User: Which sequence fits this backbone?
């Protein structure tokens, strides 16, 4: 978290290297939207995820899980509900020009 | 033969993109709050701090929409704020861009009802969407750079599918 502080003391520069360089290492610890294992998603689990999402970001028709990254608040409730079927995506740079780019469809392939 | 409407849309979006890229290294930002919890504002303020140093990239905050090139709109577009939002948009000189910031402004958290529109793009044309609750300053920075065409949005290529690991 405080790496930039030490780097700043050493080099006299505290400013992030982004966008010319890589993202700061501490961004790995930010909460991010979930990613899912399609093989481990069952229609029942998908339904539980849709009901359990407080932001209304997850919907399902039983065949695919639709995750709206725009609505996601990265609260982590789906990660608790889904167990090993989900993990944080780790992607925090999500700016989109088209709203539809933020809507992701994941097949529900589990039995 | 391509559909004339699609072609017109492509040309207009290309024109819009090129117009915004004119802002290049001097872009003035006005933030507009339509009823947010102020978490987004706190992240936006951090952009001017030494660690992010927004000014090195030629972005500046301005206190009036008349001096602004870009509106950064936060909050779920509360209907009571319609007037101020539209006034701020009209007062911003052309060419202008709108960035919707945060999950509320993108339709999450609050659904449409008699108090809120639920998403900023129901009131204003939005050019760039920055998700997050709140988006980190680096995410906001990426949104700004995408708005002026200095970075490409990469979310379209992002897949939320994990692979590896045998199914249970």
Assistant:
């Amino acid at each position: 978290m405080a790496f930039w502080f030490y780097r700043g003391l050493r080099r006299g520069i505290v400013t992030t290297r982004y966008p010319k360089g890589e993202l700061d290492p501490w961004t790995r610890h930010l909460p991010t939207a979930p990613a899912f294992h399609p093989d481990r998603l069952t229609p029942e689990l998908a339904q539980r995820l849709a009901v359990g999402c407080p932001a209304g970001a997850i919907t399902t028709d039983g065949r695919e899980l639709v995750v709206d990254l725009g609505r996601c608040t990265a609260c982590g409730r789906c990660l608790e509900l889904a167990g090993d079927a989900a993990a944080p995506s780790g992607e925090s740079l999500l700016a989109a020009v088209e709203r539809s780019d933020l809507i992701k469809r994941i097949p529900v392939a589990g039995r | 033969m391509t559909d004339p409407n699609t072609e017109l849309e492509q040309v207009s979006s290309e024109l819009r993109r090129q117009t915004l890229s004119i802002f290049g290294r001097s872009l003035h930002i006005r933030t507009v709050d339509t009823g947010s919890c102020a978490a987004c504002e706190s992240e936006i303020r951090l952009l001017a701090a030494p660690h992010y140093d927004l000014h090195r990239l030629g972005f500046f905050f301005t206190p009036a929409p008349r001096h602004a090139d870009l509106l950064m709109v936060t909050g779920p577009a509360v209907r009571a704020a319609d007037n101020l939002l539209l006034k701020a948009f009209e007062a911003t000189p052309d060419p202008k861009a709108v960035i919707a910031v945060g999950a509320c402004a993108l339709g999450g958290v609050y659904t449409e009802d008699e108090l809120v529109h639920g998403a900023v793009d129901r009131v204003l044309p939005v050019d760039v969407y920055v998700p997050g609750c709140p988006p980190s300053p680096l995410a906001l920075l990426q949104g700004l750079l995408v708005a002026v065409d200095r970075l490409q949005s990469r979310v379209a290529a992002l897949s939320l599918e994990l692979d590896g690991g045998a199914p249970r």
